[in-house]
C-alpha cells in the first residue's frame, strides 16, 4: 500500500513539474465579467470569443461562470478583440485589448450587455429546452420546465435519468453498477436506501432544477460512492423581488390513489436572499409478487411456492425547506438552510405459501399477514459562509451541518399453519417487533480555491464528520396477553463513526491541446459497533488515500478526449452492520453483518465528447471486497436468510454513448446506450462461483412541441439481461408519457402523466445458490399509474438570477 501511494505521489509531482515547464512558455491572460445593463446582475453561460485584431477567425472561446466571469490563458503578446454573444442580449465587441511581456495580465473589467427586445419570442417559438448536456466532468440532466417533472416525485425523475436503475428496495445503480452516492445540492443525504426513497417520494420533481451525473469524481469529493455521484440540485432563490408557485395534483395506480400539493416562495431584496418551500404528499403503492424456491437436502427436497400482495400509504404534515443568505458586501456572505420532514407509513405484506416434497403436491399451507407502521422524521440544518478574495475566482467556503433522523417502527405478524390432507386444527403463531432507531450526524468542512494567472487553480479542503447511531430492535412472541421477548432475534446495536479527510487538487493547462487536473484525498475512518444484547464489539481504524487524475485533450474546436483515473470506496451503511434479524415470513429473514469490510474501486475512463453534446465513454472498473446481498438456503427448515457480505471481487468493462437527435424543428431527443460486461467472483458453500453477463440498456427521451403549444415528452427504457453478485435479472422495458399545456401567459401549467403504460416493468430475478437450490421471484411494484398536476406561477420580481452555494458532500448510510 505504501509503495502504491509513493508511486502515485511521484506521478503527481511529475505531472506538476511538466505543467510548470509548459507554463513557462505561456505569455498572459485576458479576463473580465459580464453583467446585465438593467439589473447589474452577472450573466452566466454567455459566449466570449477571442480574436486577433483585424481577423474574424476566433482563437479561443469561453463561457462565463455563475458570477459572470471569463478568462483566456496562454495568450501570446499582441492586440486582441472580444466578441460577446448571448441569447436575449445584443451582441457586443470589445477592441484593442493588449497583452505584452511587461503586462501579461489584461483585464477588460465589467462589460454590460443590453437585453434584446425579442428575447421572449425567440425562446418560446424557436427553441426546445435541452434535457441533457455533456460537460467536461459530468452529465447534467435538466428537469426544470419539463412535462415529465410535473405531477411526479423526485424519486420518479431520478429513476428515469440516463444510466440510472433503482431496484425494488430503493438501492440505486449507475451504468449497471451499485455503490452510488446521492447528494442534494451537493450535500450527502445520510439515508439508507429505504429512507432515501421515502425522502425523494415526498418531494415534488418540480422543485428540482437538474440532476448531475458524475461517474468519476475528483479528489474534491468524498471518496464514498464506488460507482459515482448523483447530485440533485433544487430550485431556490432564482429571481429578484418576490416570486413563487403553488401546485396541486393527484395520481392513481389502478389500485390506490395519491395526491400532492404545495408551493414555493422566493424573496430577494437588498442583502437578503430567502426561500420557503412546502410539500404535502400522500403516497400510495405496493407490489404483487410470486416467490418460488427449491431446497435440496440430503434426505428430501422441499418445494416452496408463495404469492404475495403488499400495500402501503405514506402521508404526514407538509415537509418544509427554508433558507436565507445575507451578503455583507460583494465579497462576503453567510447563509442558513433548514429542512424538516416527517411522515407516517401504514403498510401490509400478505402472503400465501404452499410447501411440499414434490412439485404441485403441497402438504402445508401458511397464511402470513404482516402489518407495519413507521414514523420517519428528518431534521437537517446547514450554516454556510462564502468569501471571495479577487476577481479571478479565489474563494473560501465553510459549512457546518447537523442532521437528526429517527424511525419509530413496529409490526405485527399473524401466521396461520394448515396441514393439508391431515385433520389437524389450524395453528396460530403471532409475533411482534419494535424497531426504533435514530442517527445524529455532525459535520464541518472548509474548501479553499486559489486562482492563478494562465488558468491555473489550486483547491484545498478539510472535513470532519461524526455519526452516532442507536438501533434498539426488539422481537416478541405475541401468543399470550403479555408479549414474551425473543432474545435470539432481538438486538440493541450502537454504532459510532468518525471520519477525518483532507484533499489537494491542482488544475493547469499544459499546452494549447492538453490540460491536467490531479488530486489526492486522504480519509481516516474510526468506528465502533457494539451489540448491547450479545456484548459483541467490532472496531475499525484505517487510513486510506484516494488519488485522481484527469487529462483533457482538445483535438479540435468541437472534439475533446478526457482520460481519467480514480480510486474510491463504499463503506457499509449503518443498518447493514446491525446483526438484527428482520422478519418477513416464517421462512424468510434478513440479517445484518457487523464484520462487513469497505468495498474499494479503481476506475479508468476515456470519454470522447463532440460539440459538448455527443459523447462516448469507455470505462474499466475493478472492485475489491464487493458488498452485496447473499441468500443462504437452509434445506432442513426450508428457510432463506438474506444477508450482506463481501463477495470477493468484480470487474466491469462498459461503453456509454449519449446521442441527441433532432428529428425536426419541434422534435428533439436524447438517447443513451450502455453496453457492459460485468463479472462477479464469490464463494457459495465453500465453492467458487463466477457470474458474468453482457448487459445492454437503452434510454430514449423525446421532447415534442405539438400544435397549440402542447408539449409532449416520451421516455422509453429497455434493460437487457443483467447480473449482480449471485443474482441474474431478466430483461424488461417500459414507456412513460407526459403532456403539458400552459395558459394565462404561461402562468398556469396543466400536466397529464402516464407511467409504465404497458405494465411491463416487472422485476424477475433468479439467485445462483448452488447444489440445485432455486430462489426465483417475480415482482411488480405498481409503476403503472396516471395523474395530473396544476401549477400556478406568480412573480413580482425582476430578471432571474441563479445563486449557487458551496455545500457539504457526504452520506447515504443510515440504515439497511
Automatic annotation (TrEMBL):
Q: Which domain of life is it from?
A: Bacteria
**Listed name of the protein:** Outer membrane receptor protein involved in Fe transport
Entries under Pfam families matching the protein? CarboxypepD_reg (PF13620), OMP_b-brl_3 (PF14905)
**First-listed, main subcellular location of the protein, grouped into a coarse class:** membrane
Point out the signal peptide segment: 1-24
InterPro entries, sorted: Beta-barrel_TonB_sf, CarboxyPept-like_regulatory, OMP_b-brl_3, Plug_dom_sf
> Among its keywords, does the record have Membrane?
yes
Q: Which UniProt keywords apply?
A: Cell outer membrane, Membrane, Receptor, Signal
Tagged with keyword Signal: yes
- Which GO cellular component terms are attached? cell outer membrane
The compartments listed are: Cell outer membrane
- Outer membrane protein beta-barrel domain ranges (all copies): 388-792
Amino acid at each position: 500500500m505504501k509503495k502504491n501511494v509513493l508511486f502515485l505521489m511521484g506521478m503527481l509531482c511529475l505531472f506538476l513539474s511538466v505543467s510548470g515547464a509548459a507554463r513557462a512558455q505561456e505569455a498572459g491572460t485576458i479576463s473580465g465579467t459580464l453583467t446585465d445593463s438593467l439589473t447589474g446582475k452577472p450573466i452566466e453561460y454567455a459566449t466570449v470569443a477571442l480574436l486577433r485584431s483585424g481577423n474574424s477567425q476566433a482563437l479561443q472561446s469561453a463561457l462565463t461562470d455563475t458570477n459572470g466571469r471569463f478568462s483566456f490563458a496562454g495568450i501570446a503578446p499582441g492586440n486582441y478583440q472580444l466578441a460577446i454573444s448571448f441569447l436575449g442580449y445584443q451582441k457586443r465587441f470589445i477592441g484593442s485589448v493588449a497583452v505584452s511581456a511587461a503586462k501579461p495580465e489584461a483585464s477588460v473589467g465589467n462589460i454590460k450587455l443590453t437585453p434584446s427586445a425579442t428575447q421572449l419570442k425567440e425562446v418560446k417559438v424557436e427553441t426546445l429546452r435541452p434535457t441533457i448536456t455533456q460537460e467536461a466532468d459530468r452529465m447534467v440532466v435538466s428537469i426544470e420546465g419539463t412535462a415529465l417533472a410535473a405531477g411526479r416525485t423526485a424519486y420518479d425523475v431520478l429513476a428515469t435519468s440516463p444510466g440510472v436503475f433503482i431496484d425494488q428496495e430503493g438501492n440505486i445503480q449507475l451504468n449497471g453498477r451499485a455503490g452510488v452516492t446521492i447528494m442534494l445540492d451537493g450535500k450527502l443525504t445520510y439515508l439508507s436506501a429505504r429512507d432515501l426513497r421515502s425522502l425523494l417520494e415526498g418531494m415534488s420533481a418540480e422543485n428540482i432544477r437538474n440532476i448531475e451525473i458524475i461517474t468519476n469524481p475528483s479528489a474534491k469529493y468524498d471518496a464514498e460512492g464506488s460507482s459515482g455521484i448523483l447530485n440533485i440540485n433544487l430550485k431556490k432563490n432564482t429571481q429578484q423581488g418576490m416570486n413563487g408557485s403553488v401546485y396541486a395534483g393527484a395520481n392513481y395506480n389502478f389500485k390506490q390513489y395519491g395526491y400532492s400539493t404545495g408551493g414555493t416562495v422566493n424573496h430577494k431584496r437588498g442583502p437578503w436572499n430567502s426561500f420557503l418551500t412546502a410539500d404535502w404528499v400522500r403516497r400510495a403503492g405496493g407490489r404483487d409478487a410470486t416467490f418460488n424456491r427449491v431446497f435440496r437436502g440430503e434426505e428430501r427436497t422441499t418445494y416452496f411456492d408463495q404469492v404475495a400482495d403488499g400495500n402501503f400509504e405514506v402521508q404526514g404534515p407538509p415537509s418544509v425547506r427554508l433558507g436565507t443568505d445575507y451578503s455583507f458586501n460583494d465579497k462576503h456572505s453567510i447563509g442558513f438552510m433548514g429542512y424538516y420532514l416527517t411522515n407516517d407509513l401504514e403498510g401490509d405484506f400478505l402472503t400465501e405459501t404452499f410447501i411440499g416434497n414434490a412439485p404441485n403436491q403441497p402438504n402445508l399451507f401458511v397464511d402470513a399477514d404482516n402489518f407495519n407502521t413507521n414514523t420517519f422524521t428528518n431534521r437537517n440544518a446547514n450554516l454556510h459562509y462564502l468569501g471571495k478574495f479577487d476577481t479571478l475566482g479565489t474563494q473560501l467556503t465553510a459549512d457546518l451541518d447537523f442532521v437528526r433522523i429517527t424511525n419509530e417502527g413496529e409490526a405485527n405478524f399473524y401466521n396461520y399453519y394448515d396441514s393439508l390432507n391431515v385433520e389437524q386444527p389450524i395453528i396460530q403463531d403471532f409475533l411482534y417487533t419494535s424497531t426504533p432507531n435514530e442517527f445524529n450526524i455532525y459535520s464541518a468542512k472548509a474548501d479553499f480555491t486559489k486562482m492563478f494567472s494562465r488558468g491555473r487553480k489550486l483547491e484545498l479542503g478539510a472535513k470532519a464528520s461524526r455519526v452516532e447511531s442507536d438501533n434498539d430492535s426488539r422481537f416478541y412472541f405475541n401468543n399470550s396477553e403479555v408479549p414474551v421477548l425473543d432474545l435470539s432475534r432481538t438486538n440493541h446495536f450502537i454504532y459510532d463513526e468518525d471520519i477525518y479527510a483532507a484533499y489537494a487538487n491542482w488544475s493547469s493547462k499544459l499546452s494549447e491541446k492538453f490540460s491536467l487536473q490531479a488530486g489526492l484525498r486522504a480519509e481516516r475512518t474510526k468506528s465502533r459497533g457494539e451489540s448491547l444484547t450479545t456484548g459483541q464489539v467490532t472496531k475499525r481504524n484505517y487510513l486510506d488515500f484516494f488519488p485522481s487524475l484527469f487529462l483533457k485533450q482538445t483535438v479540435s474546436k468541437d472534439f475533446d478526449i478526457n482520460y481519467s483515473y480514480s480510486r474510491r470506496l463504499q463503506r457499509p451503511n449503518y443498518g447493514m452492520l446491525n446483526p438484527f434479524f428482520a422478519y418477513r415470513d416464517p421462512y424468510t429473514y434478513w440479517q445484518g453483518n457487523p464484520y462487513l469490510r469497505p468495498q474499494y474501486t479503481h476506475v479508468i475512463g476515456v470519454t470522447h465528447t463532440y460539440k459538448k453534446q455527443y459523447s462516448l465513454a469507455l470505462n474499466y472498473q475493478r472492485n475489491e471486497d464487493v458488498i452485496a446481498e447473499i441468500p443462504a438456503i437452509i434445506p432442513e427448515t426450508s428457510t432463506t436468510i438474506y444477508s450482506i457480505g463481501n463477495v470477493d471481487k468484480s470487474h466491469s468493462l462498459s461503453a456509454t454513448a449519449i446521442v441527441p437527435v433532432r428529428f425536426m424543428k419541434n422534435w428533439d431527443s436524447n438517447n443513451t446506450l450502455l453496453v457492459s460486461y460485468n463479472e462477479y467472483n464469490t464463494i457459495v458453500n465453500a465453492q467458487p462461483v463466477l457470474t458474468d453477463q453482457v448487459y445492454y440498456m437503452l434510454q430514449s427521451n423525446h421532447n415534442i412541441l405539438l400544435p397549440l403549444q402542447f408539449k409532449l415528452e416520451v421516455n422509453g427504457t429497455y434493460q437487457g439481461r443483467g447480473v449482480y453478485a449471485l443474482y441474474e435479472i431478466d430483461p424488461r422495458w417500459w414507456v412513460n408519457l407526459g403532456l403539458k399545456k400552459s395558459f394565462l401567459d404561461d402562468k398556469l401549467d396543466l400536466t397529464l402523466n402516464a407511467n409504465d403504460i404497458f405494465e411491463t416493468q416487472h422485476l424477475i430475478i433468479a439467485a445462483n445458490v448452488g447444489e440445485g437450490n432455486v430462489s426465483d421471484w417475480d415482482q411488480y411494484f405498481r409503476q403503472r399509474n396516471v395523474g395530473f398536476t396544476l401549477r400556478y406561477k406568480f412573480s413580482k420580481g425582476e430578471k432571474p438570477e441563479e445563486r449557487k452555494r458551496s455545500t457539504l458532500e457526504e452520506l447515504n448510510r443510515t440504515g439497511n
